[in-house]
User: Fold this.
Amino acid sequence: MAMKLYFDPRSRAQVAKWMLDEAEVDYEIVPTLIREGAHKRPEFLKINPAGKLPALVDGRTRIFENAAICMYIAEKYPGKRLAPAVGTPERGRYLSLMVYSTAQLEPSMGDSLLKIKSNNSARGWTDFEQAKDAVERELGDGPYLFGAQFTAADVMIGSMLIWHRAFGGRTNRPKLDAYIHRLQARPKGMKFG
Ligand SMILES: N[C@@H](CCC(=O)N[C@@H](CS)C(=O)NCC(=O)O)C(=O)O
Assistant:
C-alpha cells in the first residue's frame, strides 16, 4: 500500500513532497485544502493533532512535522543515501541540523519576514542573521551540507531558505543564494503552488 501524503500545494507540505520525490518512492497525494478547512476536520486531527500540514501515513504509522517525515523517509530507504548512515560520525551533525531547521531556523525566518525584533536570548532561537551565519558555517564549501552528498538536511534547511525568498525575503548572502539556486535547479527540487 502506497504511503499517503496529506497535501495542499500552497503549504509546507511541499517540503515533504520534495523529500518523497528525491527518494523516488511511490506515494499517493491526499488533497487536504487549508482554504476548505480540511486540516481541522476530526479525521485529520487523528493523524496530526496540531491540525497542520503536512502529514504522512504509511500503513499503521502516522508522522507529522516535516522534519520527522524527512527523517522517516531517509531511514526507511537507506539505499537512497538521503542521510548519513547510523553509526557514522556525520550522523550527529545530521540529526542536529534536522532539529535546528525547525527549532531555530524556521522561527527566526518567521520573525524576519514578519519584521519581529527581539533581543531576548531566552527564546530558543537566534535572530535570522545569526541563523544565516550558522547555516553558512555548516555549508562550508558545499555544494551541500554534507559535501557532495545531498541529504534530508538540505531539504529541511534549504526549503526554509527557499520559502524565505518566495515570500520576498533576501538573504544578502551570495553563498546562501548560490545554495538556494543549486537546490532549486535539482530535477526534483521543491515546486510552489
Ligand atoms: N513545523 C510544521 C509547520 C506546519 C505548518 O505550519 N503548516 C501550515 C501550512 S504552511 C498549516 O498547516 N497551516 C494551517 C493552520 O495552521 O491552520 C512542519 O514543518 O510540519
The pocket of glutathione is lined by residues 11-12, 34, 39, 52-54, 65-66, 102 (CB under 6 Å). The two ends are 27 Å apart (CA to CA). Residues 90-113 form the longest helix (24 residues). Residues 90-184 form a domain with the Glutathione S-transferase Yfyf (Class Pi); Chain A, domain 2 fold (CATH 1.20.1050.10).
